[in-house]
Structure formats: C-alpha cells, structure tokens
C-alpha cells in the first residue's frame, strides 16, 4: 500500500502521514508522534518507520515539518490531538476515527507522549527507546495511565533501557502492557526499509489496539516478536 506525507495548511507545524488513498480504508485511527531529541523534522529521523505505520491504514500526525531544524514541544502533541478530535469525521477527513488515538514517540518524543497521560482522548501509548527521566516521577506518570501501553527498547546499550524497564514495572495492575528489547541500542531501526523490526512491531501494535485487527496480535502473543529477535515480557494482554 503506498502512502504519502505532507504539511496541511490547517496544521502547519505538523506532518501528516497516511495511505495515498484515504478511501482505501473505511476507517483510520490516529497516532500522534513525537520525534527523537524532540526534533522538528519527523522525516529525517523516522520517515520510513512513520510511512510504514501509515501504510496499514493509520493517520500519523508527527510533530514538526520536513527539513525543520528546530525543536518541538509537549503542547504541539496536544495540538495534534485537538486537531484530530475536531476534524475527524468531517470533509476530507470523513473516515478518520479519533476515538482510537495513540500518543507515541521515540526518546524525547516518548516524554512528549507521557505528557498526554491525563488526556482521556488517548486510548493507547507507545513508548519507543524512552522512559521517564526522573525516577521520582515514574509512579505518578504511569499511575495516570489506564490504557494499553507498550515499550519498544534497544536492549542494555540503549540509554533509555533502565528508564523504560522501570516504567514497565510501574504500569498499573490490570493495564495491558508489553516490553520488547531488540539489541540495537538507542537508535532503533527507524531508518531501515519500512522501519525495520521497530516498524514491524509498531504497526502490529497499532493495528491491534487501534484498528482491532486480531491477526496483528500474533506478533505479541504467538511468538512473532521473539522470532524477530525481541526479548519480551508482558502483562494482561488478554484485556485488549
């Protein structure tokens, strides 16, 4: 499935990634994405990965715009959620479903996703090579999350490894959670074709929790991730 990305005039500080033909999908959920280093260029650091997500029938709203050398803010992620909530179901966005919306991000972008932990519009979290920076804030941050949250880490050489693993352990009882470590370090595989194994894991997660595609769950419950080289642990996945 081919996909496209561009800056829309109604959201000039963000980049939209979606299937080239929105009409190919009856309904598209939303992923709002924060970039590594809170960068303002989602294409330079994560382009193939974000295109892979979009190709499966997901509207990705990434913070920043192609070629932008600046940085992004937590407020920009909130703006993306606001935009999706207002525009979903309207006009050219008639088949966008903002009732299924994930906040996600890599490294610094993961902390931007965490900043949405009080927003009831967020129905899932994806934390990639990231974790809470201050251990004293871990329990408060994770304690506010009662929707599925998956962690995608780069193994012990990932600078965010200890943070992410600590966060996984702090997830509320009964909340569906999963942590995978692929031994690649902090940089992940986002720039590999189709985002590499992080692309496969990411699209499988969002297809499962946002699109309700039960076949995508096999990656997490039937050994798919382990076959790809992830070391995993999980809790309460049966609640999804």
TrEMBL record:
Protein name per its UniProtKB record: Dienelactone hydrolase domain-containing protein
Question: Native species of this protein?
Answer: Aspergillus sydowii CBS 593.65
Record SUPFAM superfamilies = alpha/beta-Hydrolases
Record InterPro entries: AB_hydrolase_fold (IPR029058)
Q: What is the lineage of its organism?
A: Eukaryota, Fungi, Dikarya, Ascomycota, Pezizomycotina
């Amino acid at each position: 499935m081919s996909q496209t990305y561009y800056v829309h005039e109604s959201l000039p500080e963000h980049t939209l990634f979606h299937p080239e033909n929105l009409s190919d999908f009856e309904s598209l959920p939303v992923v709002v994405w924060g970039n590594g280093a809170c960068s303002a260029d989602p294409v330079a650091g994560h382009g193939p990965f974000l295109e892979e997500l979009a190709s499966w029938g997901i509207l990705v709203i990434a913070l920043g715009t192609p070629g932008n050398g600046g940085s992004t803010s937590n407020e920009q992620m909130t703006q993306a959620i606001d935009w999706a909530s207002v525009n979903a179901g309207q006009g050219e966005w008639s088949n966008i479903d903002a009732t299924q919306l994930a906040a996600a991000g890599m490294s610094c972008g993961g902390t931007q996703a965490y900043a949405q932990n009080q927003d009831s519009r967020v129905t899932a979290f994806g934390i990639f090579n990231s974790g809470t920076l201050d251990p004293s804030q871990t329990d408060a941050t994770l304690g506010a999350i009662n929707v599925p949250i998956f962690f995608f880490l780069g193994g012990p050489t990932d600078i965010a490894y200890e943070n992410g693993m600590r966060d996984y352990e702090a997830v509320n009882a009964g909340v569906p959670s999963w942590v995978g470590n692929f031994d690649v370090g902090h940089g992940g595989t986002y720039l590999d074709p189709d985002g590499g194994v992080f692309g496969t894991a990411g699209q499988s997660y969002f297809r499962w929790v946002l699109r309700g595609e039960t076949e995508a769950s096999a990656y997490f419950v039937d050994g798919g991730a382990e076959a790809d080289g992830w070391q995993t642990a999980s809790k309460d996945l049966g609640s999804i």
